[in-house]
Write a structure and sequence with these properties.
single chain, mainly alpha, elongated
């Protein structure tokens, strides 16, 4: 019968030191396969978790991420529909109420022109979020494409792009904004967004280039190249998904920087211009009245600080989740 012979063979194997260790290891492996949630983290038939699934699991447990995400979600909602929390018009002003404090229906008071500070603060979120998101998307797209191609192909393309980025890094951002935007007469957000993309892509390009060079040297890329994969397939299928994490982290943190940069340029008078509604414009207009009407300055300044802080906290949480060295 087969059962006694199998018992005898197992006894013979267990009789030797090496055989006993092999038999014990085999038994432990079989036990781990039967126990859900073993070292593999799954159970029978479970798929291994990817970097993105592990990152999402860590983010859901991070209170910093949850708090910043709630603040950003609120900002996005009021940006899309500011009338949901205010019924006023940010351009309706009454000079008879200039620099007045809070009143029924006007909790933040009035600014130097008699405009409702609460309404202008709410509508200013639309401008800041629009500029920040559009500038970040443009910078991430241009920087990722140019830096990724430079890191993948190298050679003359990499050398030329590196020298071009050095030139852009040498331009002070605020000084460049004063020079380039001072000749623009448009009162829309697009000249400001274009300026940020023009001076912001080199940073993302350097990040994408280094990430692609690191991913290009991995064994799975070399194996795919040996099997005859085309350069486009190598870059899009094997390298880009494993090199995009640092770009996402830097872009998330930079979004808050672009919001503060828009407010700075508007404060200096070269960014958005009236009748546009912007926190930078309101801060600039309220600065001469800081002693008589400090509320007109504090509310838009506080909204700007909270918004920038929320995006920086979100970027830090995403960085901690996507960097395996910090686990």
């Amino acid at each position: 019968m087969p059962e006694p012979s199998s018992r005898q063979s197992r006894g013979a194997i267990a009789g030797t030191g090496a055989g006993g260790a092999m038999d014990l290891a085999a038994g432990e492996a079989a036990t781990l396969e039967r126990v859900p949630g073993g070292p593999a983290g799954g159970g029978p038939g479970s798929r291994p978790r990817s970097l993105w699934s592990d990152a999402w699991r860590d983010l859901r447990r991070n209170p910093v991420f949850l708090l910043s995400a709630l603040v950003i979600l609120f900002l996005v909602v009021i940006s899309l529909r500011p009338s949901a929390i205010t019924s006023g018009n940010p351009l309706d002003c009454d000079l008879a109420k200039a620099q007045d404090g809070s009143a029924p229906g006007h909790p933040f008071g009035f600014d130097g022109q008699g405009c409702d500070v609460y309404t202008r603060t709410v509508y200013g979120a639309r401008t800041s979020v629009t500029v920040g998101v559009c500038a970040t998307l443009g910078v991430a797209l241009a920087g990722s494409v140019l830096g990724g191609l430079a890191g993948f192909f190298g050679g003359a393309w990499d050398a030329v792009l590196s020298r071009i980025t050095d030139v852009f890094f040498a331009i002070p951002v605020v000084l460049g904004g004063l020079v380039l935007l001072s000749v623009v007469t448009s009162d829309t957000v697009w000249p400001v967004v274009g300026f940020m993309v023009l001076l912001g892509w080199p940073q993302l390009s350097r990040i994408a280039r280094g990430s692609v060079i690191t991913a290009r040297q991995n064994d799975y890329v070399q194996a795919a190249r040996a099997l005859g994969a085309s350069p486009a397939r190598l870059l899009l299928r094997h390298i880009a998904p494993n090199a995009v994490a640092p770009v996402i982290v830097v872009a998330t943190i930079a979004l808050g920087t672009y919001i503060s940069l828009e407010a700075t340029l508007s404060y200096l008078g070269v960014g958005l211009k009236p009748p546009s509604v912007s926190w930078g414009i309101d801060i600039s207009a309220a600065s001469p009245y800081i002693r008589n009407a400090p509320h007109a300055l504090l509310w838009p300044s506080g909204a700007l600080a909270i918004t920038v802080l929320a995006f920086i906290m979100l970027g830090d949480a995403v960085r901690d989740a996507l960097d395996p060295k910090l686990r």
